[in-house]
Structures are given as structure tokens and as C-alpha cells.
């Protein structure tokens, strides 16, 4: 079994090294709990950053292999996420995660919590369930969440959470869909959640 953790980035030199380090520690924890995982890769999909993002990523010491892909043209998170999914499938990965490059709250156990549901065939799409006070996440609480629930009847509490785990089957499904223009930018999160809600996929929170 192979796991790919992708980091979409653009000008995140100040924070990407921390995220990579936490992912690396988390993959070690994951391997200890799931010996059937024989390969892991940390992938940076970058929109040709003008700062030292790529250099910081490459220079961060890790136990697991790192790799990089560059997306050209107008920068966009969605463009990078789709590149991560494509890379994961081309390299026979069974599980693929996307973790934001500026995520300051990430801890190693995230890798285990997100991935174990896919490994155990309990989910095809795993979204985060952040702990927030009631004054945070207004766009999620008052728009994204109720619209997804009303239209699809799926209780996806964080449909624009940004950090997801997916089965290879779901990744393949996404790459076969027609992608709207906005999904090449920050609309990718809701695009992923809506497709998970509308398709025949098991959706779970981590």
C-alpha cells in the first residue's frame, strides 16, 4: 500500500518547512500502526512561487521521500490539488491526502486520523472537523455547510476545510469530472466536497 501526502503551495516559504516536518512525523506514526503501508511520498505541488518555498521544501530533512511538481500559468490551489491527484494515480498510490502549506495547527496524529478511515475501507473522502468557537468559520457555518446539507442531505460539517484524504477511486473520479474555472483556484475545496456528496462515495469526518 502506498500513501501520497500532497502540499499545494504558492509563496509559503515561511511555513512550509513546519508542515513538511509534521507530515513526516505523522507518516512514521502511520507506518507503525499500519505495517501494510510499504511506501509513502510527500509531494509539493507549487505554482512557481517567487519566494523560497520550493527551496525550503527541498531542504527540509525527512525520513520519507519528497517529490515536487510545478504548475504553470496563473497560480491556483485547485490547479495544484488536481496535479497532486494526477501524480498519486500515476504513481499507484492507494491513499492521497492534501494538506495546506500554511497550516499552523497540524500535528503528526493528523496523518493517522485522516488516513486510517481510507485504509480500513470506511471512507472514500475524509474531511476535517475543526474545533472552533461559534464566532469562527462564518462562511462555513452560514453558507457552505447548510447549502451542502440542504441540497445533498450529507452532513459534511467542513466542506471547505482544505485538508482532505481520498481513496484512489475517488481521486480517479475527480479527474474524470469537468472542472469549473473557479475550482482551479480556491473553489477546489467545495468542488471536492460536492462531488463526494453527490456520488456513490462514503464520506466521513476525521
Explained architecture:
With 206 residues, the protein is α/β, with parallel strands linked by helices. The chain has a single domain (2-205), classed as Spore Coat Polysaccharide Biosynthesis Protein SpsA, Chain A. 41% of the residues lie in helices and 17% in strands. It has 7 helices and 7 strands, in the order βαβαβαβαβαβααβ. The protein has helices spanning 16-33, 53-59, 77-90, 109-119, 138-152, 168-175, 188-198, and strands at residues 2-9, 39-46, 65-70, 95-98, 125-127, 164-167, 203-205. A 7-stranded mixed sheet has the order 3-2-1-4-6-5-7, with helices on both faces. Helix 1 (16-33) links the parallel strand 1 and strand 2 (39-46). Helix 3 packs across helix 6 (168-175). The longest helix is centred in the first third of the chain and has 18 residues, at 16-33. The radius of gyration is 16 Å and the shape is globular. The protein starts with a strand and ends with a strand.
Amino acid at each position: 500500500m502506498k500513501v501520497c501526502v500532497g502540499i499545494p503551495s504558492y509563496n509559503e516559504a515561511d511555513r512550509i518547512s513546519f508542515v513538511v516536518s509534521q507530515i513526516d512525523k505523522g507518516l512514521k506514526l502511520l507506518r507503525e500502526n499500519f505495517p501494510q503501508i510499504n511506501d509513502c511520498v510527500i509531494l509539493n505541488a507549487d505554482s512557481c512561487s517567487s519566494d523560497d518555498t520550493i527551496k525550503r521544501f527541498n531542504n527540509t530533512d525527512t525520513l520519507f521521500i519528497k517529490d515536487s511538481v510545478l504548475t504553470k500559468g496563473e497560480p491556483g490551489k485547485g490547479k495544484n490539488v488536481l496535479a497532486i491527484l494526477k501524480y498519486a494515480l500515476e504513481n499507484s498510490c492507494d491513499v492521497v491526502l492534501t494538506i495546506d502549506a500554511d497550516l499552523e495547527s497540524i500535528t503528526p496524529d493528523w496523518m493517522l486520523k485522516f488516513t486510517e478511515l481510507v485504509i480500513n475501507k470506511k471512507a472514500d473522502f475524509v474531511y476535517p472537523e475543526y474545533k472552533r468557537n461559534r464566532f469562527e468559520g462564518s462562511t462555513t457555518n452560514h453558507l457552505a455547510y447548510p447549502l451542502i446539507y440542504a441540497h445533498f442531505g450529507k452532513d459534511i460539517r467542513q466542506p471547505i476545510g482544505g485538508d482532505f484524504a481520498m481513496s484512489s477511486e475517488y481521486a480517479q473520479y475527480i479527474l474524470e469530472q469537468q472542472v469549473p474555472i473557479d475550482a482551479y483556484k480556491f473553489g477546489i475545496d467545495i468542488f471536492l466536497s460536492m462531488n463526494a456528496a453527490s456520488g456513490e462515495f462514503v464520506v466521513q469526518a476525521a
